[in-house]
Amino acid sequence: MAATTYEQLKLHITPEKFYVEACDDGADDVLIIDRVSTEVTLSVKKDIPPSAVTRPIFGILGTIHLVAGNYLIVITKKTKIGEFFNHVIWKATDFDVLSYKKTMLHLTDIQLQDNKTFLAMINHVLSVDGFYFSTTYDLTHTLQRLSNTSPEFQEMSLLERADQRFVWNGHLLRELSAQPEVHRFALPVLHGFITMHSCSINGKYFDWILISRRSCFRAGVRYYVRGIDSEGHAANFVETEQIVHYNGSKASFVQTRGSIPVFWSQRPNLKYKPLPQINKVANHMDGFQRHFDSQVIIYGKQVIINLVNQKGSEKPLEQAFATMVSSLASGMIRYVAFDFHKECKNMRWDRLSILLDQVAETQDELSYFLVDPVGKVVTNQEGVFRSNCMDCLDRTNVIQSLLARRSLQAQLQRLGVLHVGQKLEEQDEFEKIYKNAWADNANACAKQYAGTGALKTDFTRTGKRTQLGLIMDGWNSLIRYYKNNFSDGFRQDSIDLFLGNYSVDELESHSPLSVPRDLKFLALPIIMVVAFSMCIICLLMAGDTWTETLAYVLFWGVASIGTFFIILYNGKDFVDAPKLVQKEKID
User: Fold this and answer.
1) Which EC numbers characterise this protein's activity in its record (predicted)?
2) Greater confidence, 572 or 30?
3) Cα angle at 51 between 48 and 55, to 5 degrees?
């Protein structure tokens, strides 16, 4: 079986069945899904009834079971990102969720409402930008992993050979994966970020590619998924690979990011920064060792760059991380702590060079992956930098972009693109491409985890901090605060449902979605709206002494009532918490 999936598809719909027709040259396969029995079979084109309603699709994302029964999820729109060694890379931009059932009359009112909510969750995940696929190339593996494979691996289907950490529709494809004969219809989809650019330096043209692969293990949103689980999977784990293709030679530099790998939580409670809590009874070393055992097997040596504050609420986490590394005493792991905010305060971002100088020799030892035009491996990357801050977003992305540039400098010099003594920073046209791509990568990772664009992207885009950048950071921080407290429960439930961490059981006597929200949950948003309205009135009435005074009294009165409510009731009672899967709660 060739390692490809069908690229051109048509969906034919009848009341009884879905027919997915392969339209590639020479293909006669048709995937048939029985809408009543849910049976999946492989047939040929002559079995498609002429009465079927036909539409083009670009891939099968998979199937999912909700209260009303099964649903088929298909890709209906795609955008070409570029070509990757003659393989086309696509972004899925629109989807359709099709019910197997022809009617909902078999559902009660409560079941109808639950089914509607579950559908909204699936559509929410699909609306988050960043789903990528290729019908001919394995996007889930790095160049180095793909270079070290057997002939048997090369013959596997894309679904079989994929790195399951990065197949976001793995749960949705479970029925197709059980039948190898239909694997050419099973399209593994990556979630994260991909950008590709054709660049020129000194008249020499090369392709520059950036790929971030977001893990579907311990996936979730900012405050509800932190630390590691019992299997050693870290929250917000992302593998980022930077690739250069020049005159047939390919170079790659891989980095990872992931939450501090101990058992800790940071549940939202209306405070701007909830206090992180480290589990006092968990076996941290067990999870920690599981995490790094797998990281060493996959990537080799681990150079940890911990960017959290070394004072205040983040200090215990930094100390815990350092202690665990020391206790593990592995020669494959090196720990570097760099207090990003302290070192770069007062916008002294030039001081990041302190960290780069500190790890320069180590980076040279780790090297990068390089293969020549005939496929011979010249160098292997011997390990990775594993960077983290609290969210593994803003500070982390800044450092990763600087380490990647340093590696790229060495690669382009070795390939003969850069002359001896030339610096990437001096190549204005390429620098603009490079900085904007890394800033876009930061925004993509941040939106997928925190719900907003990244902070500090003004530095990534321009190389310096700006006043406008500070204002935008303030705005994004405000949006994060609102989402983290008032909508992240729904976002977390959506991810858990999509990934199969929660399975719908229509026979369940008590719906997990029926947890009532009492008046105090509704009170805070109302108070916030009224207080904001009073503020607007104050501005509109400025200049009229008595009305201005009255407006201020009303505003501060409402604000005081709001404060009283927050003090009277624990802030945790107001937040939108997940309902489907119980998240770790450490008090």
Assistant:
1) 3.1.3.64
2) 30
3) 75
